[in-house]
Specification:
The chain is 86% helix and 0% strand. It has 258 residues and is mostly helical.
Length: 258
């Protein structure tokens, strides 16, 4: 009952947003400034029939996904090092602080000097994901029950068993929170890098061309595509994460049964 009510409220909110969009477009009465939802829908349907559309989506998806996964891996490894050795945390602090506080555009322009525009989204997505994952994972590791760790040390529990039975369950909410935030950030940063770097065959190139030719329907249509792909990818990744933890939990329960 509550689930249906929540879904209905969301649908009504979407309908209200579309209505306000339509009213705004009619008030401006200029397709160059603001296209109507219907115009955007028609353009989106046209894009779906073009082979280049799927190539652009695949190009951006692969690179942003690679940047996210690399940032997730590197952030986790650095968090483990910082939790194990306080000196490592001190040495990492200036780099993490700079990454968190520097505008994305500054990194993009700077990295264009070093990297090919095709690889730029990977590196920029990695940079945006890294501090989020690092901070969350470090907090999660430090919140692990010290008494359980002492018991594991006394009974000489192996590293893999500690990771499976102590750290992974403790890190679940921190990892989920980090991924939820970092996934959206990776798409925003990755697309921004493409718009500035303009790698051939990317979503960023399509957005740049829409801006050059003053095509509001194209701009809004590609924006809808970015939102849809980003949300779908986030939902899929978080579902896989929950599924993995569910399988891990069922295996642990099976091992401790008499």
């Amino acid at each position: 009952m509550w689930a249906k009510s929540g879904l209905l409220q969301r649908l009504l909110a979407i309908a209200l947003a579309l209505l306000l969009w339509q009213v705004g477009a009619m008030a401006l009465d200029s397709q160059l400034l603001l296209a109507t939802p219907w115009q955007v829908l028609l353009r989106l349907l046209e894009l779906l029939q073009e082979p280049a559309f799927y190539g652009a989506v695949g190009f951006s998806l692969v690179r942003i996904l690679a940047g996210f996964l690399l940032g997730l891996l590197l952030g986790t490894l650095l968090a483990v090092l910082a939790a194990r050795w306080p000196l490592a945390e001190t040495l990492l602090w200036p780099y993490i602080t700079v990454i968190k506080t520097t505008p994305v555009a500054s990194f993009i322009i700077l990295c264009l000097i070093w990297l090919d525009s095709g690889n730029l989204p990977i590196f920029i997505s990695l940079l945006m994901v890294l501090p989020v994952v690092y901070s969350n994972m470090l907090s999660g590791i430090r919140q692990t029950d010290r008494k359980l760790l002492e018991m594991a040390h006394v009974f000489r529990v192996g590293t893999l068993r500690r990771l499976r039975y102590l750290y992974l369950p403790q890190l679940q909410p921190y990892l989920t929170s980090a991924c939820s935030v970092a996934l959206g950030m990776s798409w925003k940063a990755g697309i921004a890098a493409e718009v500035i770097g303009i790698p051939e065959g990317s979503i960023g190139e399509m957005l740049y061309e829409a801006k050059i030719y003053l095509s509001a329907p194209d701009l809004f249509a590609w924006t809808v595509v970015i939102i849809a792909v980003s949300v779908a990818f986030e939902r899929l990744f978080l579902w896989l994460l929950r599924r993995g933890y569910g399988l891990l939990g069922s295996r642990r329960r099976g091992e401790v049964r008499p």
